[in-house]
Every structure is written in C-alpha cells, then in structure tokens.
Specification:
Layout (H helix, E strand, L loop, with lengths): L4 E4 L9 H16 L3 E6 L8 H15 L8 E2 L4 H13 L3 E4 L3 H13 L24 E4 L6 E6 L3 E6 L7 E3 L7 H11 L4 E5 L6 H11 L5 E5 L2 E2 L15 H6 L4 H9 L13 H7 L10 E2 L2 H13 L3 H7 L10 H14 L3 H12 L7 H7 L2 H16 L7 H15 L7 H9 L7 H36 L1
Parallel strand pairs: 1-2, 2-3, 9-10, 11-12
Antiparallel strand pairs: 4-5, 5-8, 6-7
The structure holds glutamic acid (GLU).
Glutamic acid binds next to loops.
Family: Belongs to the class-I aminoacyl-tRNA synthetase family. Glutamate--tRNA ligase type 1 subfamily.
Function: Catalyzes the attachment of glutamate to tRNA(Glu) in a two-step reaction: glutamate is first activated by ATP to form Glu-AMP and then transferred to the acceptor end of tRNA(Glu).
Pfam families: Anticodon_2, tRNA-synt_1c
Length: about 475
C-alpha cells in the first residue's frame, strides 16, 4: 500500500511507557513496511507540562530501540493560532456557534437529567440563536454535530461502528478562554499532517466520532482507525507499575534488550501463526494492522524474560562489549570474551545477570561462603591446593581453552591418585568464594595461571585460618 502516513501522538507524561511504545511500534511498522511516513506529535496543549523533556524522553527511548520518525516533531502547544483559524472558519461557515450557557446552569441541567436517570446532553439552545447575547458572559464555541443519521466508521480492529446522531453532542471546540479542545486539535492535526492511518489505544474509541464530526465539518478526509485493546496484567486488570507498566528506559536498566522488548510488544495484540520470535526485519515483512487482535492482551513477564534470554544468547562478543559500560562493567580480555561469554550467556536471562556473573568471575574473591568453607577445610584440600600450585608452576604455556584445563586437571589428579571430580568444589570455593558462576575449567582458562594461583593461595589462607580457630576452640 502506498502513501501510508502514521503518527505517534503521546501526551507528555515525562517518559514513554511500554503501552505507548507498543502503539508507536505498530504505527512505525505499518509506515516503514509500506515505504510510508511515521510522524511524531507531542500533544502538549496542557501548558503546565514540559514538552521538551517529554520529547527528549521519547527520543531517548526511540533511540534505544532503534526506531526513528520522519520530519520535524509537531508540538500542539505551538499551533494555537492555527487552531484558532479553524474555529473562525467553522463559525463563519455556520458550522459552529458561540454558546453563552453558564457552567452553573449546565451543571444544574446535567444533575436534573441524571436524577431522572437520563443521559444528559446539552440542549443546543444557542445552536441557531439570533439575538443579543447575555452580557458579561465569555462564550465557548460549540460545533454543530449532525442532528440526524449516524456517524459511521469501519475500525480495522473493532469492525463497523455506528454512532447515532442522538448520542452526539454539540461539543465544545474552544473554551471561553479561547483554548481549543482535545478532539478538535487532534482531528485538525491528523488532517493537516496527512495521516492516513491512526493506530491507537481503544481508550480513545469514544473520541473518534467527535473527531469525525470535525473532519466532516472541515471537509477533511477521514483516516482509517485501528483501536488496539489494552495490555492487561495476568489477572485481567489494568497494568500497574509492579506488573511492568514502567518507563521504557527502566527496561534497559533492568537488563532487557531492545530486540526482546519490541518482539514482546509486537506479540501483545498481534500474531502470525504460532511464531513467537520476530526480528525487526520479519516484523516489517509480516506486520499488518488488519491482523491486530480484538481481545485484550496479557502481559507475561516470564515470556519477556524468555525472549530476552533468547536474544541475549544470540549476541556476539562485539555487541556485548558495546553494552557492558552501561551496566558498569569494563570490556575484558579477548580470552575472557571467548571462553566466558558463551557460558555466561547461557546462565543469564538479562544483561544485569550477565554482568553480575562476569564480575563474580573477574573480581577478586571478597569473602568466602561460610557453609562451603566448613566442607572445604580439610587437610586433604590443603594438600591439594598446595600440590596444585606446584603443578601450575610447572606449566610452560598458558591455557587456550576449558578443554586444556580439563586435560591438565585430569593429569594432575591421575598423578596424585585423586578423583578429578572431587577437585571442582574446592576449586570453586577458591576461585569464586561461593557456588554459582561458570564452569571451573572455563574460569581457570579465562583467569590464567597466575590469577588462579593467587586465588588458591588466598583460599589456602582462609582454610588455615579457619582450622587454627577451629583448633583453638577444640583445645578449650
Ligand atoms: N495523546 C493521546 C495519548 O497519549 C493519543 C491521542 C491519539 O493517538 O489520538 O493517549
């Protein structure tokens, strides 16, 4: 399809939530897949909020996930004069009118209707008013909604929507201070920006008929609409921060990869057979808003972790190196990258876990696990550590791989009449101070002979010290 123009139109809440990112992604995919345009508009008519920060926060998130937009950002706050012109035009054409009804009277009217159990509508008393307007009342401007027939549109997700004229109000398009209203400016902007397809949350469904009234009054073509159901938590309730409704950049801080997050989001509301894994290329190839689901989607934290582990596992060393500084780790030696990265990738689901394991492996042991110490502090292990250091001293060349280390440990064990498999727990104690981490042979290969010896020496000290204290206690 040609000439698709979509947009993302966030209200500046300060940062981008994942629900917003999903909406942006759907719009982005549809435009990009069709060689169209994806535009960004900041809906900042509420001037108390800071739109520049919001833009930066959105750009930061877009940048991280690798999404971009076309052209200049449109700020509604900079377009008041333009909106005023359209209010004028509608007034001139008799499609809008000043309404002088006071707030208090409106309120009283509404309460009265509600008390009778009726749905309240403004009674349109100023629609065809000719005469002298009441003095001292600053009027609002209302649009003339159709009195008969219906507003019809075919939503790409919800299907045919028909809204009876009876249900429509002559709603306000400009307040008494001249500030235009939400639905009015959205329709004008979408029309002027040439938006062909509006993909947005279905919390906006009830706004659409009003926006269509504006399009029609101004003779603008009505775009296609896709109202996407909400993302719910596993209990079927609105997503809270605890469930994952947090800033996109918090996902980065928690160690998620943008590929995983986008893949996760595209599946919240859209599917292609049973496939779960979609690269950006595949999303662009396959995404079509007409296949968006009409049922709400459910946020599944386990699935996000699973996807993240998948994408983490697929990262090459270069990509990992580029990411490490953000998580406070420096890029290790090539040997470490070659020997440890594959193992750490397998053992971690997030980059935070990855860095934790990497640091555990590379940082000197700070403390030894007490329970492990109780098991390890035997005379046999003291002999073993000493003998192993002597053995390491005889080695002429550095280890190239975990296999090299395994061969040496086996040779050493044979020579001393020991069982190789019994040596790994004490070695883990010596090299890491506790359980967890990576395979011991890989770790030795990565650390090299000198660091391995140093750690074993330190562990020996801890064993001797523990034994001396133990002896003192015994002798008391
Ligand atoms: N500004 C609205 C929001 O952040 C979106 C409006 C629209 O997409 O039409 O929810």
């Amino acid at each position: 399809m040609n000439n698709i123009v979509t947009r993302f139109a966030p209200s500046p809440t300060g940062y981008l939530h994942i629900g917003g990112l999903r909406t942006a992604l759907f719009n982005y995919l549809y435009a990009r897949a069709n060689g169209g345009k994806f535009l960004l508009r900041i809906e900042d008519t509420d001037l108390a909020r800071n739109s520049i920060d919001a833009k930066d926060a959105i750009l930061q998130a877009f940048n991280w996930v690798g999404m971009d937009y076309d052209g200049e950002v449109v700020y509604q706050s900079q377009r008041f004069a333009l909106y005023a012109k359209y209010v004028e035009r509608l007034l001139k054409e008799g499609k809008a009118y000043y309404c002088y009804m006071q707030k208090e009277e409106l309120e009283a009217n509404r309460k009265e209707a509600e008390a009778k159990g009726k749905v309240w509508h403004y009674d349109r008393r100023y629609r065809d008013f000719i005469g002298t307007p009441p003095e001292g009342v600053k009027p609002v401007v209302r649009i003339k909604a159709p009195l008969e027939g219906e507003v019809y549109f075919k939503d790409g997700i919800k299907g045919e929507m028909r809204i009876c004229a009876k249900e429509l109000d002559d709603f306000i398009i400009a307040r008494s201070d001249g500030v235009p209203t939400y639905n009015f400016v959205v329709a004008i902007d979408d029309a002027l920006m040439g938006i062909t397809d509006v993909i947005r949350g279905d919390d906006h469904l009830s706004n659409t008929p009003k926006q269509i009234v504006v399009y029609e009054a101004l003779g603008f073509p009505v775009p296609r609409f896709f109202h996407v159901p909400m993302i719910l938590n596993p209990e079927g309730k609105k997503l809270s921060k605890r469930d994952g409704a947090m800033s996109v950049m918090e996902y980065k801080a928690l160690g998620y990869l943008p590929q995983a997050l986008l893949n996760f989001l595209v599946r919240l509301g859209w599917s292609h057979g049973d496939t779960e894994i979609f690269s950006m290329r595949e999303m662009l190839e396959l995404f079509n808003p007409n296949n968006l689901n009409s049922a709400p989607s459910s946020y599944n934290a386990e699935k996000l972790l699973w996807l993240n582990a998948h994408y983490l596992n697929a990262l090459n060393a270069e990509s990992i190196n580029a990411i490490l500084p953000f998580y406070g780790a420096s890029v290790p030696s090539v040997v470490v990258q070659e020997v440890l990265y594959p193992e750490i990738k397998e053992r971690s689901k997030t980059l935070v876990e990855f860095v934790e394991i990497l640091k555990k492996c590379l940082n000197p042991v700070e403390s030894f696990d007490k329970k492990m110490l109780q098991k390890v502090k035997t005379d046999e292990n003291i002999h073993f550590f000493n003998a192993f250091i002597v053995y390491l001293n005889t080695l002429k060349k550095p280890f190239q791989s975990a296999q090299d280390v395994e061969v040496e440990i086996a040779t050493f064990a044979d020579f001393h009449g020991l069982k190789a498999k019994n040596l790994f727990m004490p070695l883990r104690y010596a090299l890491l101070g506790s359980s967890g981490g990576v395979g011991i042979s890989s770790l030795i290969a990565a650390l090299g002979i000198n660091e391995t010896k140093e750690r074993i020496l330190k562990a020996l000290e801890s064993l001797r010290y523990a034994k001396s204290i133990g002896n003192e206690t015994d002798s008391k």
